[in-house]
Design goal:
With 260 residues, the protein is an alpha/beta fold. The protein is 40% helix and 15% strand. The chain has one domain: Rossmann fold (3-Layer(aba) Sandwich), CATH 3.40.50. It binds NADPH dihydro-nicotinamide-adenine-dinucleotide phosphate (NDP) and 2-hydroxyethylsulfonic acid.
Length: 260
C-alpha cells in the first residue's frame, strides 16, 4: 500500500494534458478522484479507461464561472467531499502577439481562468483542508511566471500571480499541516499550443519541431511525487524544463540607433 491510496484527489482541467495524466497517475496509485473540466464527454471517456477499481466522480466545471465554483463543494457526493489534494491545473494561454497587438478578450480569459479560477477553487477547498488538518494544494504555474519572453505578456503575468499566490498561501498556512506547491513546467507537448494558436495545428506543431519536449506524464509524475513525500516535507516550487530548453541571453536591439 502506498500513501496516496484512498486519498481524494481533485484535479481541475482533467480532460487533457497534465490534468488527464495526473488522473491516470493517481488512479494507478489507488487514489479516489474528482475530475472536472468543461468537456464532460472527455472526462467520461477518460474514466472508462481507468482501472475499474478506481472510485471517480466527474463534474462539468468552468472555473471562470464563479457561481459554479462556489456551488462546487456542496454538489460533491458525500464520499468525495474530503479533498486531500487539489491540483489547480486548469489553465491556458491565448495568442502570442506582442502586447500592443494582443486581444484584450484573450488577456481577460487568461486572467479569469489562470488567476481567478485558481483563486476560486482554492478558496472553496482550503477551509476544509485547514479544518481537517490535512491537505495539499498543487498549483500548476509555468516557467513563464519567472522568465518573460516575447508574446508571453498576460500569460506570463498570470503565472507570476500563481507563483506569488502559492508563496502567500504557504505564509498563511504556517502552523497548519496543509502543504502548497507550485509546479512550474517549461516546454511540454499537450493541447496547450493548439489552444494558444486557436486551433491552428500547423502552428501548434511548429512549437515542438526538432525538440524533445516534456510530456504530460513527466509532470504527472512530479505532481504525484511532491504529494507523496512525507507529510513534513513541502516542495515550495519546482521548475522543470526539457533538456532542450534554457534561457536566452538578455535581448539587445541594434536597429534603433539615434531614435532613442
Ligand atoms: P491542455 O490544453 O492539454 O489542458 C488544459 C486543461 O485545462 C484542459 O483539460 C481544459 O479542459 C482545462 N481548462 C481550460 N479552461 C478551463 C476552464 N475555464 N474551466 C475548466 N477547465 C478549463 O494544456 P496543459 O495540460 O499543458 O495545461 C495544463 C496547465 O499547465 C495549464 O495551467 C497551463 O498553463 C500549464 N502549463 C502548460 C505548459 C505546456 O507547455 N503545456 C507548460 C507550463 C504550464 P476543458 O477545455 O475541457 O475545459
Ligand atoms: C507554458 C510554457 O514557455 O510556453 O507555460 O510559456 S511556455
Amino acid at each position: 500500500m502506498n500513501n496516496m491510496m484512498k486519498k481524494c484527489i481533485l484535479i481541475t482541467g482533467a480532460s487533457s494534458g497534465f490534468g488527464e495524466a495526473c488522473a491516470r497517475r493517481f488512479a494507478a496509485a489507488g487514489s479516489d478522484l474528482v475530475l472536472c473540466a468543461r468537456r464532460l464527454q472527455r472526462l467520461e471517456t477518460l474514466v472508462s479507461s481507468l482501472p475499474s477499481s478506481c472510485r471517480v466522480h466527474v463534474q462539468r466545471l468552468d472555473v471562470t464561472d464563479r457561481k459554479s465554483v462556489e456551488a462546487f463543494v456542496d454538489q460533491l457526493p458525500d464520499d468525495f467531499r474530503e479533498i486531500d489534494v487539489l491540483v489547480n491545473n486548469a489553465g491556458l494561454a491565448l495568442g502570442l502577439e506582442p502586447a500592443h497587438e494582443s486581444n484584450l478578450d484573450d488577456w481577460e480569459t487568461m486572467v479569469d481562468t489562470n488567476i481567478k479560477g485558481l483563486m476560486g477553487m482554492t478558496r472553496q477547498i482550503l477551509p476544509g483542508m485547514v479544518a481537517r488538518r490535512r491537505g495539499h494544494i498543487v498549483n500548476i504555474g509555468s516557467v513563464a511566471g519567472s522568465w518573460p519572453y516575447p508574446g508571453g505578456n498576460a500569460y506570463g503575468a498570470s503565472k507570476a500571480f500563481v507563483q506569488q499566490f502559492s508563496r502567500g498561501l504557504r505564509a498563511d498556512l504556517l502552523g497548519t499541516p496543509v502543504r502548497v506547491s507550485n509546479i512550474e513546467p517549461g516546454l511540454a507537448e499537450t493541447e496547450f499550443s493548439l489552444v494558444r494558436m486557436k486551433g491552428d495545428a500547423q502552428k501548434a506543431g511548429d512549437v515542438y519541431t526538432d525538440t524533445h519536449p516534456l510530456c504530460a506524464e513527466d509532470i504527472a509524475e512530479i505532481v504525484y511525487w511532491v504529494t507523496s513525500l512525507p507529510s513534513h516535507v513541502n516542495v515550495n516550487a519546482l521548475e522543470v524544463m526539457p533538456v532542450c530548453q534554457a534561457w536566452n541571453p538578455l535581448a539587445v536591439d541594434r536597429t534603433l540607433g539615434n531614435e532613442v
